[in-house]
Amino acid sequence: KTTHFGFRTVESKDKAGMVAGVFHSVAAKYDLMNDLMSGGIHRLWKQFTIESSAVRPGQKVLDIAGGTGDLAAKFSRLVGSQGKVVLADINDSMLKVGREKLTNKGIVDNIEYVQANAECLPFPDNHFDCITIAFGLRNVTDKDAAIRSMLRVLKPGGRLLILEFSKPSSELLGKVYDRYSFDILPKMGKLVTNDEESYRYLAESIRMHPDQETLKGMMDEAGFVDTRYHNLTGGIVALHRGIKP
Ligand code: SAM
């Protein structure tokens, strides 16, 4: 089966190309789908991330895999006119929606938009005070390379925050959630975007993603210190934090 954005099936296409296809396809309806799929709760997860960031006026923040800019918009207010926010994403369709929504509407003037791959970030060493990656790491092919790359561009003492789907802490919640993501989500995707495949990919990518302890171990391995995580909504989502020594 070929979907309208040009990949055949989830299995038959390499991951990077498939991820690009998925996000080109959903960019226009991405914000609406986020609200529908999570019942608006993604806003609370993102707010918690901002509150955990300890970002202050004048600082430099990178939101990688930032998509349509939800976190970048909030950081933009926190860092103020003396600060800088870089909204980076591998996908120009997602960045375009973000730029339209924020800069072109005159809502912010301190966000820079950069098309970049998290695995090899095009920024100098020791550059950012804080880096966030929200619902993005799951899509990255070489996650260890991405974590190392984020470590490199952080300043010593800077923090990395990874907001991502994770493993529900109770078996019952896990079962209900599996049902929801494999049965209901793709149907919802079909109704709203006429694109069932992309939302089936979403459910599969969530199931494949490393759980809380595994991701924490990957951050330790890369060289982050003081790593910890906080479960949100019963572990459906977790916020991981690490500091660059
Ligand atoms: N952070 C936004 C949010 O929370 O609403 C967007 C999340 S969206 C689910 C995932 C984003 O990751 C997409 O915009 C996609 O283009 C981007 N992405 C996927 N692989 C990437 C990579 N290797 N480097 C940078 N961005 C990537």
Which structural traits does this protein have?
20% strand, Rossmann fold, binds S-adenosylmethionine, globular, alpha/beta, 245 residues
Could you explain how this protein is built, in words?
The chain is an alpha/beta fold and 245 residues long. It has a single domain (10-243), classed as Rossmann fold, CATH 3.40.50. Helix content is 45%, strand content 20%. The chain contains nine helices and seven strands, in the order H-H-H-E-H-E-H-E-E-H-E-H-H-H-E-E. It has helices at residues 15-26, 30-38, 41-52, 70-79, 92-101, 143-153, 171-193, 196-208, 212-222; strands at residues 60-64, 84-89, 111-115, 128-134, 154-165, 225-232, 237-243. It has a seven-stranded mixed sheet, with helices on both faces. Helix 3 (41-52) packs parallel to helix 4 and helix 7 packs antiparallel against helix 8. The longest helix has 23 residues, at 171-193. The protein starts with 14 loop residues before the first helix and ends with a strand. The model is unreliable at 1-13 (pLDDT under 50). It binds S-adenosylmethionine. S-adenosylmethionine is lined by residues 19, 23, 64-67, 70, 89-91, 94, 117-119, 134-136, 139-140. S-adenosylmethionine binds next to helix 1. This is Ubiquinone/menaquinone biosynthesis C-methyltransferase UbiE. GO terms for molecular function: 2-methoxy-6-polyprenyl-1,4-benzoquinol methyltransferase activity; demethylmenaquinone methyltransferase activity. Pfam families: Ubie_methyltran (PF01209).
Fourth CATH level, the homologous superfamily: Vaccinia Virus protein VP39
Tell me which ligands are bound.
S-adenosylmethionine
Q: Kindly state the mean pLDDT as a whole number?
A: 90
CATH class: Alpha Beta
Overall spatial form: globular
Determine the fraction of residues in helical runs and give it as a percent range: 40-55%
Largest sheet: 7 strands, mixed
Distance between the termini: 49 Å
Strand order of the largest sheet: 3-2-1-4-5-7-6
Could you please say which CATH topology applies here?
Rossmann fold
Radius of gyration: 17 Å
Count of DSSP H/I helices: 9
| Strand count | 7
Uncertain spans, ≥5 residues at pLDDT below 50? 1-13
Number of domains: 1
Computed structural class: alpha/beta
Function: Methyltransferase required for the conversion of demethylmenaquinol (DMKH2) to menaquinol (MKH2) and the conversion of 2-polyprenyl-6-methoxy-1,4-benzoquinol (DDMQH2) to 2-polyprenyl-3-methyl-6-methoxy-1,4-benzoquinol (DMQH2).
Family: Belongs to the class I-like SAM-binding methyltransferase superfamily. MenG/UbiE family.
Pathway: Cofactor biosynthesis; ubiquinone biosynthesis; Quinol/quinone metabolism; menaquinone biosynthesis; menaquinol from 1,4-dihydroxy-2-naphthoate: step 2/2
InterPro entries: SAM-dependent_MTases_sf, UbiE/COQ5_MeTrFase, UbiE/COQ5_MeTrFase_CS
